[in-house]
């Protein structure tokens, strides 16, 4: 009788210990996974904030270095179409001093395009890919002049056409092209892209080729409008 009573006491003790351990383990597990989930949610936000701050810091350097006569910082609201970025809308307008034909550049001082229409609080720009885009450029290493044109169809994407290079063209694949400054639309010495190929055909008096624009490999959510 006494042994049976002791066994019941021992059983109850083990039962209570088991309940306590289970509740403690579940609480710990729940807290552990909750913390991990919070880390996964918070970490990308922190990384995005750091990345965004870095892009704006680079843009701020443009004004400090006095590369351009005027600089306005903005964020990109929309890009269309996503698969072929030819039009962008920014969050600054004429109330902020934005004007038509201001050049749009990335935080790495790469040409994105230019402003074509301005409202009070927003403005619309076309990128280098837009079919109406024309940019006078020069090859940095040779000084040869050319024109980079947008494309009417996306079959050439992500490349652009470079046209009207001289027949004795000395430019080669890998050479960098930048704005020439010979037109009022774009200040000089803004990086545009890298030559991928020069057409070696002698059928025409001038040579053509293709260029990969720098901005397409950059995050251009933060931009500067310059003149």
Major beta-sheet overview:
6 strands, antiparallel, barrel
Distance between the termini: 100 Å
CATH topology of the largest domain: Thrombin, subunit H
CATH class of the largest domain, named Mainly Beta
User: Portion of residues in helices?
Assistant: 25-40%
- Report the uncertain regions: 1-5, 25-30, 32-42
Instruction: Please report which band the strand proportion falls in: under 5%, 5-15%, 15-25%, 25-35%, 35-45% or over 45%.
Output: 25-35%
Mean pLDDT, all residues: 80
Nearest-angstrom radius of gyration? Answer: 30 Å
Order of helices and strands: HEEEEEEEEEEEE
Annotation, overall tally of beta strands: 12
Whole-number count of domains:
2
CATH H-level superfamily of the largest domain: Rod shape-determining protein MreC, domain 2
Q: Give me the secondary-structure category.
A: alpha+beta
Question: Which CATH architecture of the largest domain would you pick?
Answer: Beta Barrel
